[in-house]
Amino acid sequence: MNLDKITQRYFNLFPGDFSGNPMQRQTPNFLFAQTEIYGYKNAHLLHFNQNLSEEIGLGKIENQEDTDFVNATNLPENIKTYSTAYAGHQFGQWAGQLGDGRAIYAGEIKNSEGKFTEIQWKGAGATPYSRHADGRAVLRSSIREYLMSEAMFHLGVPTTRALSLSLSGEKVARDIMYNGNVDFEQGAVVIRTSETFLRFGHFELLAARNEIDTLQKLTDFTIENYYPEIDKNSENKYIEFYKKVSEKTAEMIVEWLRVGFTHGVMNTDNMSIIGNTIDYGPFSMLDEYDLNFTSNTTDLPNKRYAFGKQAHIAHWNMIQLANALFPLIKDEAALENVLVDYSEMFWKKHDEMMAKKFGFEKLERYDADFFTSWQKLMEEISIDYTLFFNQLETLKEDTNIPEHFKKCFYQNINSNQETLLIEFVENYKQRLSYNQISRDESRKIMQKANPKFVLRNYLLFECIAEMDEGKTDLFDKLWLALQSPYEEIYPEFSVKRPEKYEGVVGCSSLSCSS
Ligand code: AMP
Ligand code: MG
User: What phi, psi does 212 have (nearest 5°)?
Assistant: First the structure.
């Protein structure tokens, strides 16, 4: 591996705390703190993402030094580790300084095209930002992040990625349901990568501390590196930046809705400044379509982060970012305009995406009514989101409609529901007939918009149970399936969630404990 090519640009660019003090604490005036890596003695590499490693310029694992690096055990001299400080609004409340509590950066690697990628271990031990927690991660949540972030990448959704999965060799105490029942679980470390891990919360922290010089420096750095399309000499660059972030964020949410992803913890500290899906915790892919579905047990009372509320929450989070950038932009009206435009922009992108899912050549004005009738159908009948669109695509002229969709239902349907479904499908065929393109071409549009494989929670649940016993068969199969989600590699994955998993924690709902 090209470990010697890893550098730490932050060290020269931003104010950092180099005291080496491992105490958990506030770090005013600093954007990051240099941290020592704890180093697990009995770590064991479980899986390595070779393709990603080549792509970002790290190359192959060739010797013990490389394995040690991946396992966060022993690091070469040039790798100086650090964690960053950020703040955030959690569940609608200002939470002050949070920071990388269990993420430690190795730095950045540059590939042959000159593109930088940040590398960090998650679960490699405590940092100054661990806030009374242990800085560790359990195997269960690490498998989820490792597989899901790659699944999202192959689905075409903007996301951070995962390079490796290791067992730390240590046991970690967790109270999964927060009810006093502590269990010891296997500890694990994931290396994740992203063009940047900067979050809304980094900007919020600097604004809240009134560290405007650093805020400006960080914003300039972000524009120059991640938004090169913005003219860095323009006097409007900061509002342009805000506009672009709002666009990227809207695009990310549209993609989540397309594939049926519920993030579960859309706090502002979990919002990437480049519109990447970040921090895989109690996420879930939809089984049955339900706008009110929330995957996070901590979120159950208010369902703030429910599947169908994600666009609205992203908008709320954008307001917090507006407040953070205000000292640079100083133009309330301009910021408000972007926020007003967000809704229109989001719905336009959303409806265009939906039109593709249905195989429409282009979005028409009257489609709004069609989408509403679809929503009504999905509210009326408990239908699997992914399978529904797969079945819609294979619909033929003489198909027996209730029979054709049977595999998507979570309950037997009554005659009224059957009528509603038949009417909807007839209506849909009518709408399809307005296409100027052939049915085959329309199908191709659908095949690109509708995955055949999604990484459902119950599959992760089964995979985790197997991995806990040291078996990797299902993991290996999922790893293959998730790389070609628009094909059917394993027919056994093209089924709805089995009945036995209904309401089972880990399959339909998850806690934040990780
Ligand atoms: P999350 O809800 O996962 O986005 O985490 C919110 C904050 O808690 C972030 O600052 C995390 O770094 C921190 N955190 C979560 N789990 C741990 C842990 N096991 N040890 C230290 N910090 C953690
Ligand atoms: Mg987080």
Answer: -70, -35
